[in-house]
Amino acid sequence: QNTTISGTLTAPDGTPLIGATVQQEGTSSGTVADLDGNYSVTVSGPDATLIFTYTGYKTVREIVGNRTTINLVLAEDAETLDQIVVVGYGSQKRSDITGSVSSVSSEDLEKAVFTSVDQLLQGRSAGVQVTSSSGEPGSGATIRIRGNNSISGNNGPLYVVDGIPIAGSPNFNPQDIANIEVLKDASATAIYGSRGANGVILVTTKRGESGKTRIDVSHNTTYSEVINTYEMLNGQQYAEFRNEANRDLGQPEPFPNPAEFAGQGFNWQDEILETGQRSETGISLSGGSENVRFFVSGNYLSDNGIVKGSSYNRGTIRANLDMDGLNDKLLVKVNFNAAHSQNQRAITSSRGFPASAGPIFNALTSEPIVPSLTYSGFTGEGNQFYNPYLEVTEQDDRQFLTDLVASTEATYKITDRLSYTFNGGVNFTLNNRDIFTPKTVGTGINANGQASNSRGQGYDYIVSNYLTYDDIFRGSDHALTAVTGLEYSEFNNYSSSSSTSNFDIETLGSDNIGIGTGDVSVGSGRSLAVLQSGFLRANYAFKDRYLLTATIRADGSSRFAENEKWGYFPSAAFGWRVSEESFMADNSTIDNLKLRFSIGETGSQSIGSYQSLARYGTATYGVGGIETLAYIPASVANPNLKWETTRQIDLGLDLGLFKNRLEFIFDYFKKTTVDLLQSISIPSQSGFGGALVNFGSISNEGVELAINATPIATSDFSWNTGFNITTYKTKVIELGGDEEIFGPGLGVNVFGNGHIFRPGDEYGLLYGFNAIGLIQESDFDGDGNITVPIRNNDSRLGAWKFEDITGPNGVPDGIITNLDRKVIGNPNPDFLWGWNNDLNYKNFNLNFFVQASVGNDVYNTIGTAVNSGFNNNEAYKNQTVDWYENRWTPENPTNDIRYPSINSSSPPVANYMVEDGSYIRLKNISLRYTLPLANSVLSSVQLYLTGTNLITITDYSGFDPEVSSLGGNSLAPGVDLGVYPRQKGYTFGANVKF
Amino acid sequence: CESLEEVPYSSLSVDNLYQNEADVDAALYGVYSTHNVSNHDLWYFLATSGPSESVVVRLKGDGNQGRLSSLSFTATDAHGVWWPNFYRMINRANAVMANVSKAGLDPALEEEKTAEARFLRAFAYFHLVKWFGDVPLHLEETTDFSDESVKKPRAPMEEVYAVIIDDLQYAETRLPASYISAEQGRATSGAAKSLLGKVYLNMAGKPLELTANYALASQKFAEVINSGSYALQSNFGDVFSIDNEFNDELIFVRPNIRETGVGTVLTFFAGVPQSPFANRNGQYQFGFTEYFYNSFNPEDTRRDETLLYSYVDALGREVTFNSPDNPALPFGGYGGNKGIGFGKLKDPFNDISAFAHTNDIIFIRYADVLLMHAEALNEQGQTTEALPFLNQVRSRAGLENVSTTDQAELRDIIKQERKWELAGEYVEYGDLQRWGDIEASLFLNEDAAVFNTVYSPAIELLPIPQGQIETNENLTQNPGY
Fold first, then answer.
1. Cα–Cα distances in angstroms (integers) from residue B187 to residues B113, B123, B363, in the given order
2. First CA to last CA distance, chain B
3. B10, B129, B264, B268, best to mutate vs chain A, most A CBs in 10 Å
4. For residue A557, which residues of chain B lie inside 8 Å, CB to CB?
5. Average confidence (pLDDT) over A202-225
6. The pLDDT value given to residue B333
7. Fewer beta carbons under 10 A from the terminal one: N or C of chain B?
8. Contacts of A687 in chain B (CB under 8 A)
9. Looking at the DSSP assignment, which residues form a beta bridge with residue A698?
10. What is the pLDDT of residue A356?
């Protein structure tokens, strides 16, 4: 006969365990504790066993007997490490993990303001370097897990969202994230085979729980401003500067009366910058019945950046549904996410030359003296004026991104140990970009208005099927769990583009480019790649203390060449939970001690489609004076082209002390990537300059340490702190036929390549001339002949004097040529660290997060462009006050290479561009207050104030040391071309829960 | 596994190209297009016209420009770009020859297309053999990059010339005499005959000195002249005007238009600062020397067309920066270094791209043929017969007729005439090589003086690009490098 049992569930400190589950063993009968920890459950009789569970507490089993009241104090689970960790194709207890996996939970994420999933990993996880390319709203970030593995391939990690691998980085609302796992070593990533080499980021989104429907409403508003600006010459200073420069060249003075410009002149930075405003509103609903649970959210973000005319708006909708059926044997999870963003970009390069010349560059270099704010004619000297204000206000650059991800995961328990899972998903992306450059701006001036439309569509499909056999030898000392499955993925891409010029009517802009009567250029493309895979993972534990994980994945990729269609990626890992040994049983200090070792191989299949085939390309030829299509053999076949292979070992130690209030996670890793994808030079007499092959290797070696501590935990006050630090070195071991590889040109009026990759060197070292001073009177002999080596015949006073390193014969030759370049900097940080603190006092919560990069150099390319005077009659360049006041003059014969004379040659890439890019930044500080509520409708109201990037300690002189202008290009780390400046922001927000 | 096979939906391959005549033409345009690549024209100019006494460069110190123009060559200089560029042309021509039959054309038409490919292959090999001497012979399309396929050693110059002559003889009888206007710029039988004559003339000169070839050369030039297809423009400046493209004087040109990819960058590098050509971004990296200016007879109408003293600026104002009395304009930025602007490369209306100009690159024109014919006849001792061809060119320039019948005297006159007539037209280094005049010219070369270049036989040929020697161990370097 049925009996009703009731009682109260509390924690050891007396607080009620709201939502703790109570269930009769072997049945589906159960309930959850209410706000006061009270429960009431009907059981079948005195023999019934009740199971009381609550996350973070020890599960308790009680036989009911004759009782009607069971009050329990659940003990905290000393192994709070024993959270469930999502790994590929399944999950594991943290204590059983043998690989290197870091987790970031939603609680860590809620306390800062993020727009993209990329950003939120910055500083939060050891071994992960996140560099955002600029401060532009909606801009992406470069993520490197344990360094770069490749030179010409892709170095970005694989994102897997709710089991569905995503091409690129995911586009959705970060508030939907429940937790993130970063898989770092081969043991963890090998299950992703040919896509695992750069690490894997597993994102799990929030899901509903049975019970009352919970409604969360949140809103926040951020005001932001530029962190730092350059002090440029004003009107009068500029006039004096130009006069002096022209006098020096023996040319007439352009501004006969500089004094007339006193107090005049535009500060173009002020004209293009404004206070940014960002606001975000979100709502989520979750709940459900016992068998159907849901999490639904909607979010709208509107981010008007600090550059006028730039904005990023995004709306997202998510619906996650869970259904149990067939007597709980079937669990179906349906996930749907739609995101649409509209990005009005204001930083578009509007001129082909110099490279990257857009409004930021122009705001720094444009002359301050023009007739009006909206002027776009010629300057007084007859030069075309490129107006930065018009570039931000009149150039229209819209990028619309639509992302739909839908997936269904169904797990059927064939027996209570064996289950079958089907996971099928689709990912549709639409990427539209429309640009209109009116006739007042950049290339639009000469083209009489220019417009382009480009469309990209991606359709990716994935189907995986796998069997999980859980705990095969249950009840014995041997615990074996195995997962095996098959997967098929398909990646379809379609693109099209069109552009034209000559718009007599500009009103319709790029919305109807048919109005343009200039030459029309159109194009389209289509590609398909297929990936077929099989995988197997076995986890074995003996007596819960000796752990073994073995994984293998086979990937067949259409991108691999005909002789190398299939790759095999094995890994193995061993763990020893020392703290479980009997000799440790009496140790009250050490709660957890685990040693880990893993070894394995993963791949990177960042070969573009069709790269192994002999392809023809198109060119054009002006036959008959008409641009005419031409066909050319574009590549030579390589039937052996395959993935890059990364071999990695990892040695790890997990230590938990004082009831796990102090935890250390330490990892040493060494990765070697071989078979690098490289375009090697083949003899050009073949008609081809190069061929894509697998050759060469690089290595990464480093250590990571994460420390988590709870120094104070009382009922009123608690302090949690987490610190992580990473250091590693990426070394080039061997390259293909080329002994050295140079990075791309740096652009922006600075000439030459700036990076070098050589065997034996660190990755991507900065490479250029070494200026050792400025040419002085004393460098000439009695006959007026220069006595120091000079470059480009430039022997003018105050010009750079460079170190003569060597010549064609291996010894200094008295002339400065490209042979006189050397390593002038290192863009790789010595250390990266992040420090997070969470303090709770009664209803207050203070969270602050500090993040740092130490020891990395940055090319301040834009800084050099505005700090080196007047180069080669380039009349459009304004300069900084700092340079102007400190520059070399006969009266101020400085030897400081940062201050050359007024007429210098164009700066080649050299040490004067290199600055220490180290910084320590208070990335985030947030104060929250939770209103004590008696009201039963509202369950909580939280108000908060957050500051972002409020304090930055750095010696870097540009807008911001955290910069990566060429971020998409692995060959060019640490370059500042004058990007969208980063901002500091103040956020006010509220979260209301019903 | 079947589904792992790739289908390159949007890339052409040898399987779906070559379906019809239009496809073959597009593949042939691909052969022509080889040289529309960035900066090629700059290096082409600097190593053909740069080493002469007429041209001076701005960037004297930093390797490429200074060294090419001063004959102080090194194996890593930018002349190295031709090696890949011309071999790319050769491979593309080979690919057309290998695949043209797939289009199923009439046999005569197929031969015409093959002839065009062979003309272009000969054009490329002629450049290579002149500059580098012995060069590897690739006469098949490259389909793999095995050592046997891509690491061939150098073939003797005579063998290379044999291939060139064979190709041009095939081409001269099969190419059409002219094209409809929409196809102008393609090789004609006149272009093949002119080039073949030029090939013979070069073989007759140094270094091979196969003097019997003078007769073969003059025979080809006579065929061109007697064809009646070509004539001198009455006004010298009209030859180069962008309003007068494909005029009767032009025998083989590379047509350029103001679009990225099919324009020439040369005008950008030649443009004086803020000049209307080069879209006001002119780099003015080279100019003519004052020595060259002074060499002109003041009556010569070519002087003030070849050299530039004034321009119309962006605001429509005429800017006269110099005059015939004081012609040299400082290059700017480096002090003391002067040159005279290029008048043959004007594109006053470029409003599309500073880098891509519409000025055609003239490879062979009728005045060149006339002067080569005069040279070939004179070298055979037929001085009297040579004079009318020389005098046609002189009288167009407003100069008096020459009447000497002294072979040596006439030889010098013809040489000087070529320098005036064809200055900056990519013939100078080849002429000096053929005449054995590099050493003599060295003393007049302003850039060489800056570099203190000393004559050595090595500079009669360019060094094999270092990168090529590094990737192909079967290549040997030219002596002296």
1. 10, 10, 11
2. 53
3. B10
4. 4
5. 91
6. 40
7. N
8. 87-88, 90-92, 94, 138, 141-142
9. A673, A732
10. 66
CA within 13 Å, CB half, A967: 19
CA of B23 to nearest chain A CA: how many angstroms apart? Answer: 8
Average pLDDT over residues B109-118: 98
CA–CA separation, A849 vs A587, rounded Å?
34
- Which of A610, A623, A903 would you mutate first to test chain B, the one with the most B CBs within 10 A? A623
Name the burial class of residue A658, with classes exposed (0-12), middle (13-18) and buried (19+) by CB atoms within 10 angstroms of its CB: middle
Does residue A630 belong to the interface with chain B, where contact is any CB pair within 8 Å? yes
| Residue in the block written with tokens 């000392």 | A477
Q: Give the residue from A562, A626, A628, A685 with the most B CB atoms within 10 Å of its CB, the best one to mutate.
A: A685
How far apart are the C-alpha atoms of A674 and A411, rounded to whole Å?
Answer: 38
Determine contact: B246 vs chain A, CB below 8 A.
Answer: yes
Nearest to B61 among A684, A685, A792 (CB): A792
Average pLDDT taken over every residue of chain A: 88
Asked if the C-beta of A522 comes within 8 angstroms of chain B's C-beta atoms, the answer is: no
In chain A, what are the domain boundaries? 3-73
**Residue range A748-786, pLDDT digits in tens:** 666 778 899 999 999 999 999 999 999 999 999 988 889
3-class DSSP state of B255 = coil
CA dihedral of B242, B247, B251, B252, whole degrees rounded to 10: 30
Residue with tokens 């500083």: A123
A162: left (phi over 0), alpha (psi -120 to 50) or beta: left
Instruction: Kindly list the structural domains of chain B, giving each domain's residue range(s) and its CATH number in brackets, ordered by start.
Output: 14-175+461-471 (1.25.40.890), 266-359 (no CATH)
Model confidence band, residue B466 (pLDDT cutoffs 50, 70, 90):
confident
Query: CB atoms < 10 A from the CB of A653, how many?
Result: 15
849-888 of A, contacting B, C-beta below 8 A? 871-873
Check residue A81 and give its pLDDT: 44
CATH 3.20.20.20 fits A3-73, yes or no: no
Judge whether B229 is closer than 8 Å to chain A, CB to CB: no
Write out residues 366-425 of A within 8 Å (CB-CB) of B: 378, 382-384
CB contact under 8 Å between A687 and B186, yes or no, is: no
Q: Which amino acid is located at B197 in the chain?
A: G
Given CB atoms, is B145 within the 8 Å cutoff of chain A?
Answer: yes
CA distance B289 to B56: 6
Q: Tell whether A682 lies on the interface with B, counting CB pairs under 8 A.
A: yes
Q: What is the pLDDT of residues B25-40, one digit of tens each?
A: 999 999 999 877 767 8
Min mean pLDDT across A260-274, A439-453, B206-220 is at A439-453
The three-state secondary structure class of A789 is coil
Beta pairing partners, A719:
A712, A839
Q: Contacts of residue A519 in chain B, CB cutoff 8 Å?
A: 259
Q: Residues of B with CB below 8 A from A527's CB?
A: 8-10
- DSSP one-letter code for B218: H
The residue type at A868: S
Q: Do B333 and A873 touch (CB under 8 A)?
A: yes
The number of C-beta contacts closer than 8 angstroms across A and B is 259
- HEC string for A486-536: EEEEEEEEEEEEEEEECCCCCCCHHHHHHHCCCCCEEEEEEEEEEEEEEEE
- Chain A residues in contact with B263 by the CB 8 A cut-off are 622
* H-helix or E-strand spanning residue A241: helix A235-248
**pLDDT score for B1:** 45
Token pair 């297309």 is found at B113
In angstroms, how far is the first alpha carbon of chain A from the final one? 38
Distance from CA of B135 to the nearest CA of A (A): 9
- Name the range with the highest mean pLDDT among A89-103, A117-131, A367-381, A541-555: A541-555
